[in-house]
Amino acid sequence: MNFEDIPKMIRHLGRTLFGSAPIAPVTDLTGKTAIITGASPGSIGFETAKTLAAWGGNVIITTRSNPDATVRALVAALSLEGKSANITGHTLDLTDAQSVNSFAEWFQKNDENRLHILINNAGIHLDLLSQWKEPTRTPDGFEIHWRTNYLGSAMLTHLLLPQLKNAGAIDGDARVINVSSHLHNKGLNSELFSQQRPYDSWEAYGQSKLATVHHAFEIQRRFAQQFNVKGYVLHPGAIATNISGKGLEGTGLLQKLRNLFSPIEALILLSPTEGAQTQIYCASHPSIIGGFYYERCERGDVNTESSDTLVAERLWDETQTWIQSVCNTSETGTQQTVKL
Ligand SMILES: NC(=O)c1ccc[n+]([C@@H]2O[C@H](COP(=O)([O-])OP(=O)(O)OC[C@H]3O[C@@H](n4cnc5c(N)ncnc54)[C@H](OP(=O)(O)O)[C@@H]3O)[C@@H](O)[C@H]2O)c1
Q1: Which of 136, 173, 188, 252 has the lowest CB atom count within 10 Å?
Q2: Could you tell me what percentage of the chain is helix, strand and coil, using 3-state DSSP and rounding each to the nearest 5?
Q3: Does 167 sit in the ligand 1 pocket, CB within 6 Å?
Q4: Is residue 75, in this structure, part of any structural domain at all?
């Protein structure tokens, strides 16, 4: 940690604990198609899907398993509010290239050829107690946070770019919204291509989230002017969702204590509905500007590492090389490029 970061961190903590939650203004999304990854009940993805559907959007949600149950839960929650909804679901595992391919193919076959909003929301933050001495790796050999939070979402975005460009060309507005985290501040450009520091799972999470910032800014630079496809990235807040339960899995007593004190956690943290607001805002606000980092429904402070456009370009290129390799072969991965 840098001493210059302290005022920023105090302000962040103060707003997290004591600030009132901002609310995204209602916007008519009739005629817009939105994909939200990772929308399991209890998550901010679920609340985001609920709102975008309530505002008239054609919403597609993904979960790792049983998406139909999530769709039913969303429809039931909306009908309690007297609203009907246009929601479908599909399985998606971002760590499995085949699964990402199948989802993109399914979307392309089943939906019209336009995608207005892609919210790369699904993510993990495991090992909250920072006990891992070595990285946990996915079957194709990547550090698990990097593979889930960044690489999988980048691959999905790549496969859906034709539909995003169509929406941008026909309707003048398509958006990719990457859900990052304040912890992207733990990321360093020098660590993006090969690991120099001893492994620390919080830093690994930060690296994956810094990469999502570069990715969103690069989308803005590459596609906003010519194709009306804009890139947004955001910190949703500190929110009581399922993420911390998963991050404490296997910790025995601590997990039990957390369950016991979850009502207090819910008092301190934002609710999923509150935590969903910034991504709803980025997805829907008619005049929000692309290419920035958002927090609490307004522009926020982003890690200065993200202003290095050469790093962003290299990350983009190496990621594309990897994506091509997994798209062109039937195998589910390669360790040749993009951070082992
Ligand atoms: N909660 C916070 O305080 C906080 C703070 C900063 C940033 N964020 C970010 O906000 C986003 C949403 O998190 P959340 O708090 O709503 O957590 P959550 O309740 O755990 O929801 C995460 C969603 O991502 C899905 N997911 C996990 N691994 C996946 C994979 N390999 N492939 C596809 N989907 C996968 C989960 O599916 P399963 O249900 O199957 O696991 C779930 O639907 C994440 O990107 C997270 O990093 C959260």
Answers
A1: 252
A2: 50, 10, 35
A3: no
A4: yes
Residue 252 lies in a domain: yes
Does residue 238 have its Cβ closer than 6 Å to ligand 1?
Answer: yes
Q: Which helix (H) or strand (E) holds 63?
A: strand 58-63
Question: Quick check: CB of 179 below 6 Å from ligand 1?
Answer: yes
Read off the CATH number of the domain in which 10 is found. Answer: 3.40.50.720
Index of the ligand 1 atom closest to the CA of residue 40 = 43
pLDDT digits (tens, 9 = 90+) for 267-304: 889 999 999 999 999 999 999 999 999 999 999 999 99
**Number of folded domains in the chain?**
1
More confident residue, 273 or 338: 273
Which residues does the annotation mark as catalytic? 205
Nearest residue (CA) to ligand 1, atom 44:
123
Residue nearest to atom 23 of ligand 1 (CA): 38
Q: pLDDT by residue (tens digit) across 244-271?
A: 888 888 777 777 777 777 777 778 899 9
Sign of the C-alpha dihedral computed for residues 67, 204, 324 and 212 taken in this order: positive
What gap in Å lies between CA 261 and CA 161, rounded to an integer?
Answer: 43
* Paired sense of beta strands 298-299 and 33-36, if any: unpaired
pLDDT confidence bin for 110, thresholds 50/70/90: confident
Q: What is the pTM of this model?
A: 0.93
Query: How far, in Å, is the centroid of ligand 1 from the Cα of 89?
Result: 16
- Write out pLDDT tens, residues 24-63: 999 999 999 999 999 999 999 999 999 999 999 999 999 9
Asked if 309 contacts 81 with a C-beta cutoff of 8 angstroms, the reply is: no
Q: Is residue 334 part of a domain?
A: no
Query: Would you say the CB of residue 244 lies under 6 angstroms from ligand 1?
Result: no
CA 121 / ligand 1 centre spacing (Å): 7
